[in-house]
Amino acid sequence: MKKKTKIIAAMALLGGFAAYLYATTEPSDWRYPKLIITQLPKMPFRYFV
Amino acid sequence: MADYDVVVIGGGVGGLSAAALCQKAGMKTLVLEQSDRIGGCCSTFEVEGFHFDVGASVVEVTSAFEELFKRLGLPREKYIPLVQVDPIYEYRDNTRGISFAYPTSVEETAEVISRFSPEDGKAFEKFAKDFTPKIIGLVNNFFYAPCQGFLDIIKLVIKYPKILEALPMFVTTHQKIVAKYFKNDDVLASMAFQSFYAGLPPDMCAGLYAVVGLLEHEGIFYPPGGMIKIPQGIQRAFEDLGGETQFGKRVVRILVENRKAYGVELWDGTQITAEVVVGAINAKKVYMDMIGREHLPWHVWRGISSMILSMPCPMIYLGVDYEPPLVAHHTLTLTPPQLMNDYWSDYYLKGKLYEVDGAPEIMGLVSWASKVDPSLAPKGKHVLTHMGLAPYNLVGDDWDRHKQRYVQEAIATIEKYLIPDLSDHVVYQDMATPKDLERMLLHPGGAVYGIQTDISHMAMFRPSNRSKSIKNLYLAGASTHPGGGVPAVVAGGIITGGLIVKDKS
Q1: Which of B148, B171, B284, B304 to mutate to test the interface with A (most CBs of A within 10 A)?
Q2: What is the per-residue pLDDT across B147-169, written as a single tens digit (0 to 9) for each?
Q3: Which long-range contacts (CB under 8 A, 24 or more apart) does B295-302 make?
Q4: Is A4 within 8 Å of chain B by CB?
Q5: Which residues from B are below 8 Å from A39, CB to CB?
Q6: Residue A46 forms contact with B (CB below 8 Å)
Q7: Of the four listed, B230, B337, B409, B417, which is most buried by Cβ atoms within 10 Å?
Q8: Looking at domain B4-77+226-308+450-504, what is its CATH homologous superfamily?
């Protein structure tokens, strides 16, 4: 698999996970989803460390 | 030809475990420790007859040691004797006249809780029944499995499908899991502190950390002679197998050419070449200081620089001239979840120390190691350590300047909640600030747990045990998979050692 394809696949997976988090979390518990959402864009880069 | 097959930077339990496995496989291995003492954060030092543990104060999940010594073909008991500690924790709040201790036995703990909340006592038994098999299964499989990428996760799921049952624990928070089972404020307060071991408050910490505490009900242990006996035991096993340890050897650079590591350079300019280099110190230090941007692809640099360090844990070391009126190895004051949540946002992130009505209060875990082993202090005296949680940068102040005041504030807090007459009995006091821990142990930001443990820094999103960007470079320690804490770091060392042996044999 090419690196670009891997990055796209990783981002799609993370996007799905974010949607799952959004759907399952109560609005009052915002700090954990906020933490995860703010970290999501960094995760594809962390994957290669 | 290289000087060694494997050179390990750092003599902590992770590096030593990886080194021992490499040596066992017949690889000529050298461990370089920058200080004159083995163990890093899991160590013990002696001053005026008092023996203080540097950071780690107890171990649970002894299966990590059993696994290591099984792979080494050596008896664990001979190298690391351990004594069980019971009760696990005592909780006190003298301002309210409250005190209770949680024993190892789940049933006995449920009885203790039932005395002030019968409903929560029953809930504790259910909590333990629901989660203990899951957390033990997770530890026995996830702890020793390399998590280099998605493929490793798929392999892990195929090998242990029950791991999928643990997934909801990553999605929900510590606070939500605990609140689902328990209603009594004091019970909730007794469970909140665990979240800070992940470096986050209960409402931001993965639910997994709400149940990790159940592992302590499988038994917690202390090595007579101090926590240093653990790394010393692994070092002895490593050296019995023919390995070599050198002290006072500070590595400043990892030698890299064409994205391939081939040795290390010491502070005095000496170069030691090796087929494999293991960075068993914080991964940020390895990549950002010892390798440098010029050797890393841009996306790797971006990844490592985006990682958040775990919360620093300032340590206070107290020698006292009497037997402190405590009942457990570990004593804590009650910390309600909301207090922990507010501490994070209103104090920690703002670089401030916690205050109540304008007066500083230093929250922390008090360990009484000489209860288990009186030889850690001169006759009739005892050692106490206090592990706090505090920001690395203090707004408007500096740790070096604030140090003495912090110790006095912590003693005053302990006197208020735990030991009323403590200050009358302190005959020795010292502390390691986050800056001291950074200087002594090379932990950037004084982060003894390495990198923050949330889902965005776990498994394949944590620095890999086998570097994905530098050939022949491997990593071990709290900042790599599976994470911080003595048993996890040993497990990480087992993964790293296993990968090296597999790759090079």
Answers
A1: B171
A2: 999 999 999 999 999 888 888 88
A3: B295/B256, B295/B259, B295/B470, B296/B469, B296/B470, B297/A48, B297/B469, B299/A45, B299/A48, B300/A45, B300/A48, B300/A49, B300/B468, B300/B469, B302/A42, B302/A45
A4: no
A5: 454, 456-457
A6: yes
A7: B230
A8: FAD/NAD(P)-binding domain (3.50.50.60)
